[in-house]
Amino acid sequence: MAFRIVSCTLTLFVCSCIVGITLCPAVSAQTEKTVSGDAAFSGDQNLPASEQIKVQPLADDQAINQRLTSILKATGWFSDIVVKVEEGVVFLDGRTDSTDNRLWAGALAGKVMDVVAVVNRIEVAQPSPWNMYPAIKEVSLLWESVLQGLPRFGLGLIVLMIAVLFAKLTAHGLRKVLEARLNLLLADVTARVVSILAFLLGFYLALQVAGLSGLSSTVLGGTGIAGLVAGIAFRDLLENYLASILISMRNPFRIGDLVEISENLGVVELVTTRGTVLMNPDGNHVQIPNAIVYKSIIRNYTANPNRREMFEVGIGFENNASHAQEVALQVLNDHPAVLREPESLVLVDRLGSATVNLVIYFWYDGSSYNGMKVKSSLIRLVKQSFEKEHISMPDEAREIIFPDGVPVHMETSSTTAGPVKDPAKELSRSKAGKEQITTEAEGSLESEALQLRDQARMSRTPEQGESLLQE
Q1: How many Å apart are CA 253 and CA 242, to the nearest integer?
Q2: Which terminus of the chain, N or C, has fewer Cβ atoms within 10 Å?
Q3: How many whole angstroms separate alpha carbon 25 and alpha carbon 21?
Q4: Among 74, 131, 123, 127, residue whose Cα is nearest residue 96
Q5: Would the pTM of this model clear 0.85, i.e. be above it?
């Protein structure tokens, strides 16, 4: 192995030497020619013997004049061209539009045989500001470059179409695979990110194939800046999108749940990447941005069907509070909508100005009954039970002050009045039979959540895409 390396090194060195020896005479000749040419045009009197001016030239001045004049006129680059030759010295006069043309004429005259020197007096005309030739020339060059780049551009367009198709197929396939393992939103986000990366890669390759490598580098370099600008400009949209991801991960509610979000009560009908759609008790769609949903207090009435309600009743001071508590508790225990577990409570809350206030707590199944209707039924039944037991429920006392006093005139009557009867007590005594649990005005005690779900199914769903949550 070492022998091979040494042999290759020696061979390379020998070849280098041979190439150097071969090129040295050519370089020397080129140097001499350059020096000789420079000396000829610079007017140096110490010329080499081979470049000395001949005393008897082969071509006379008239022949040189005719030859140069015919060549310069044939190019069409010069106007008013005049060539004058005296003793081998060429004088060039005229006008041209380009400095390169002027230099080319001087170099041409210097190459003619028996020319000793060249005096180039050709003037370069200043271009007119209304001259459209440079613009036309640039457009022509641009058009030629477009025509030359059309094949590569077409190939790049084909690559771009393939990249778009590949990105779509990748997103579709990845979404199908991840839907079985992740929730819908995470699967959708992952598929979108991968498809965007695949498209950017295909777009970069398309620009490279089209010969726009500088533009492709600019696109890749500007992707981060574009993302930052887009993040600032679409901050609210991105916030809603991120909130939708977190909601789909934590699942604070499901489709069909009765929830209260930001003081909006309704059944969850749809959750998209933008917002959450509720069907409120009035039958209206309420769309709440997911950013507000995620940051708000969410009350899910369906997660735990058991709910508690309360109401307050005031009894007179002359009544036995313990007896009133037992009567109210018996009403709660006899009501079919009130749960036995957790137990109901009848508590003495406070002493008012004219009443002893009782607070009554009860539990009911929210998935089967409506809380407001059950509360209405219980208040009515407790009132009727208190009337049967002669438990007074007086109004708040009002004190009226008369500064000058109130004159009182006593009258006597010949007839003896009987005992005064309380109409309320008489009504309660005359009433017989078991009280109805619900009245026609209260309607059925069933929950309205089922009705809201039916309304949501019959309503027109907002076109916001597929729901991110399952029922």
Answers
A1: 17
A2: N
A3: 8
A4: 123
A5: no
